[in-house]
Amino acid sequence: MKKICLLAVCFVFLFQAVAFAETKIAVFDLQKMITQSQYGQELKAKMDAKFQARDKQLLKEREAIANLKKQIESKAFDEKTMQDKVMELRRRGRDWNEDVNVYQKALKAEQAKLVTPISPVAEKVIKEFCVSNGYTVLFDKKTPGLSFIADGLDVTDQLVKALNKAKQAGK
């Protein structure tokens, strides 16, 4: 019985240091980290180059639809022409909505494809940052349940610098 009590007391003293170890917590914004880094700037340039023409085309079509709507609202047509214009407006609006949906899906797919190679690098940078700075826990700001973040806990800018260093080092 004495051995068991002595063993229990030893465990209490051994694990007391672990129980009172300093816990260092911080938050970061993953989206901001990637978009402000050199990786993110390259990604944005590639996305702009690929989708800029289509974006302009959709904008031009939206303006044409708005002009058609103004024409209809002016009521400067006879009844038959007005019905034709209304039908054209509905058709063009429906087509435009479908085009926008297809465009957004293509945009998201391309973005996911371009972000995929960045993710492992970002994870490695985050782990190295936490280890080298003694952080126990690092949360993304968009994590559900975080209702308050004190000033000074956001380390996003430091992570952007670390990610840029990793990019320059060719990791």
From TrEMBL:
The keyword Ligase does not apply. It comes from the Bacteria. It comes from Pseudodesulfovibrio portus. InterPro entries: Chaperone_Skp (IPR005632), Skp_dom_sf (IPR024930). This is Outer membrane chaperone Skp (OmpH). Belongs to the Skp family. Residues 1-21 form the signal peptide. Keywords: Signal. The keyword Protease does not apply.
